[in-house]
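Let's practice the habit of predicting before peeking. Look at the sequence and jot down your guess about where helices and strands might fall. Then scroll down.
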Amino acid sequence: MFFVDTLEIAGLGNRSYLAGGERTAVAVDPPRDIEQVIAAAARRGVRIAHVVETHVHNDYVTGGLELARVTGAAYLVPAGADVSYERVPVHDGDRWEIEATAGLVLRALTTPGHTPHHTSYVLEEDGTAVAAFTGGSLLIGTVGRPDLVEPRLTEHLARAQHASAHRLAAELPDETAVLPTHGFGSFCSSSQAAGESTTIGKEKAANEALAQDVDTFVASLLAGLDDIPAYYTHMGPANAAGPAPVDLTPPAVADAEEIADRLSAGEWVVDLRNRIAFAEGHVAGTFNFEAEGQLATYLAWLIPWGKPVTLLAESPEQLAAAQRELVRVGIDRPAAAATGEPAGWTREGLPLASFRRATFADLAGQSRHDVVVLDVRRASERATGFVEGSVHIPVHALRHRLDEIPAGQVWVHCAGGMRAAIAASLLDAAGREVVAVDDSFDSAEKAGLTVSTL
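Done guessing? Here is the structure:
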């Protein structure tokens, strides 16, 4: 008998896997904080004998090298990947015995497209393919995006992605479980996964890569590609060089004076509390990235790379969880941190800053004179519908384009509230009068606002 445990990396929209038999296992695309993989193996009572990478990742820092070092496992990395450390180079058709008594074998199947060297791994039980770890190749209802390596390679990789999806469909039984790394919110996916689980047979029936001819598929795929998070440019080189072990010890504690000094120096001070609490009262000049949201993705996307960051959390537990999220994208050591309430983070006698929260119904009832409606969604989202007369600046571009926002009170919205809260905090820190629309965009037209499409 075999098992497959799925490890959700929710903040990044990815999954990692532990698979094996009664005594040994293989870890697939592990996150940088390897403790959860080790804990999963301990719960199963298995030894991790192999650690495999489907590709050199562009959206997070891998834990594969460190996990292999700690466990003594063989580290399997596609042979075509240009890396600077010792590993077992993987070629098409290579096989590894995972557990002889259970008849478990892992087989490499090259599936270029997401990257030129991308490789999938097929878990076989007594010669039957029972699961395929497809990384950024065949996803649930979609495929991994082909534009993260080199712009001149994008169309070539898109065509390779189509061929790789067809190879998987042709060579594996319909019952084979498809277990991708990307597709659950990661910007490495060309679109959001269409469900939680799938098989080769289900993908044959639903995946456009398998339903369309190559030219139609490539044209559609390239037309739908969205913005690439800015921090991605740092992930591939970090993974190719070999990431250092993580340090999750608590940061130095900052008092109100130090927080003020860091703000005055132009450093980033990030409040991790939920957006409701932040709007009600926060230290002037701080930014709000909710710990419960896509903290790592959006903070890493917006912050100037390498700039010191101080974290403000409501509890030590929230701070520790945020640290864990951030090391996954290479933000290794906060400059300082504080826990508690904002009253303890600001100099005595200074008032806390605040701003209003509202709904689309509130906006519909507002006189539009001297009011700016700011849409901070991505262009692909706006194309499906936008508030007539609104200004569009995606949240990841806002910091560089504040001077494009007309004068007046700014009502900022996104699709659900999280990104609007980030944007509102940036605007508030810049001295603008802001109202955060904390509402689903689906409510805009129902509230009486005129919604147009491009």
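How did you do? The chain has three domains: 3-241, 256-344, 357-452.
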